[in-house]
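Q: Convert this sequence to structure tokens.
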Amino acid sequence: MIANRTLVIAEAGVNHNGSLEIALRLVDVAADAGADVVKFQTFKAEQLATASAHKAAYQVANTGEEGGQLDMLRRLELRPEDHHALLARCKERGIRFMSTAFDEPSLDLLATLDMPAVKIPSGDVTHAPLLLRAARLGAPLIVSTGMCDLGEVEAALGVIAFALMRDGMPSGRVDFVAAYADPQARAALRERVTLLHCVTQYPAPPVAVNLRAMDTLAQAFGLPVGYSDHTLGSAVAIAAVARGARVIEKHFTLDRRMPGPDHAASLEPDELRRLVRDIRIVEQALGSPIKAPAAAEFANRTVARRSVVAARPIARGESLSFEALAFKRPGSGVSPIDCWDLLGRASRRDLRVDEAIEP
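A:
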């Protein structure tokens, strides 16, 4: 993770449509936008889905074709050598490379590459064998929690806790529960795991997002939290940063009109650039929880605030009364909040209209 700022992951995913050339262009777009990481997806279709696995409704809508997941996934695979080419391009462009593994051979491949973290996708939160293997790689983990309730998130953290604290294979859920109850394991989780709130729908309607659930995750598990955004536009992702997201993940594409399951819910290059820019502005604006004048405000206090002045001519020695006082700029004299302390006091000198009352 990056200290004191949001880690922005530009999610290329499968928006390369199986083409290394397009994938390399996506790296360039993410780098040009100023993202910290560009992330892809790594899988072997036959290890991810059976021939009977249907597409999600959004995949049918976005691809414009029926059929099963398997054929679609075959067209979206990256070859092992493609990953090395992408990693090299990332190093050239000064952006970190990541990819999400959806099976164990893919995880083993990615473990040999220079990635800042291992991403667990929402669909694999219940894939305990893959979680176990990922946690034992020793890298930071980013766990997406789309489609999960709190109990499922806790169960996944139990698997990770077991992997971090114990060797060998578990005998069942009871081992995960025991591992999660271990205070040392909880401390290890805090060092290694970031949870992402997520709504697994492409695009996700804002009414379904429930950004406050990000706060619930942080309170329930005491872990850093972020947000994987599948809404249209960037407003919700920016709002998540304002609510304390330490990681933002957002899909992007070269062109939303391209064929494929995720393009329609993705940002185009100029939109990605604006998102990163706006996130950095929000980070600056968040600042400190201390309520005090900003350095830039001090010069404006005298200009914007008021002082107690004479509302009419006041003779030397006259007892000051409320009707003889007015409150006008600049604020270089007695503050109106102290005007009652002046009442009944003799004026020290003759005062013209609008002259400041002396303290």
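The chain has two domains: 7-286, 290-359.
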